[in-house]
């Protein structure tokens, strides 16, 4: 089947639109973790824990992101003692990204649910 010029242009525009939409909806692991934390109520839901496990087991992400995802996965009212130590280390690590530092600080300090300051911090993470 032959494509005329007009059909070719329409197909190209359609493909470009779809690819732009796909790029627009991609969510970073830091944003995913921030969204989970912002709605946290004592512990992540089963669905959220599954997402956190995926992030925590994905070697494509930094070891800091993997540790943060694991710490959030483990939250039951607050982070575990070991996870709080890891989060404090990440929050103070100059080689960690700014988003990693902010997430780690929120995780280390969370108790039952994020307070208003933590929610503002989480909203600023992309």
Uncertain segments are 18-25
Radius of gyration: 19 Å
Gap from first CA to last CA = 45 Å
How many beta strands in the DSSP annotation?
Answer: 0
**Counting H and I runs of at least 4 residues, what is the number of helices?**
7
Strand content: under 5%
Count of individual domains? 1
Task: Choose one word for the global shape.
Answer: globular
Note the run of SSEs as H and E. HHHHHHH
Helix content: 55-70%
Overall structural class, as computed from helix and strand content, comes to mainly alpha
Largest sheet: none
If you had to describe this structure to a student in words, what would you say it looks like?
It is a single chain. The chain has one domain (27-123). The radius of gyration is 19 Å and the shape is globular. The protein has seven helices and no strands. Helix 2 runs parallel beside helix 6 (98-109), helix 4 packs antiparallel against helix 5 (81-91) and helix 4 (63-74) runs parallel beside helix 6 (98-109). Helix content is 68%, strand content 0%. It has 126 residues and is mostly helical.
Primary descriptors:
single chain, about 130 residues, mainly alpha, 7 helices, about 70% helix, about 0% strand, globular
């Amino acid at each position: 089947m032959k494509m005329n010029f007009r059909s070719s242009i329409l197909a190209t525009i359609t493909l470009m639109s779809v690819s732009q939409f796909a790029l627009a909806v991609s969510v970073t692991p830091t944003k995913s973790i921030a969204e989970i934390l912002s709605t946290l109520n004592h512990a992540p839901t089963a669905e959220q824990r599954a997402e956190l496990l995926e992030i925590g087991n994905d070697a494509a992400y930094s070891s800091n992101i993997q540790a943060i995802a694991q710490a959030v996965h483990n939250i039951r009212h607050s982070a575990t003692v070991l996870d709080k130590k890891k989060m404090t280390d990440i929050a103070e690590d100059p080689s960690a990204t700014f988003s990693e530092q902010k997430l780690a600080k929120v995780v280390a300090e969370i108790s039952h649910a994020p307070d208003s300051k933590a929610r503002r911090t989480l909203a600023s993470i992309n």
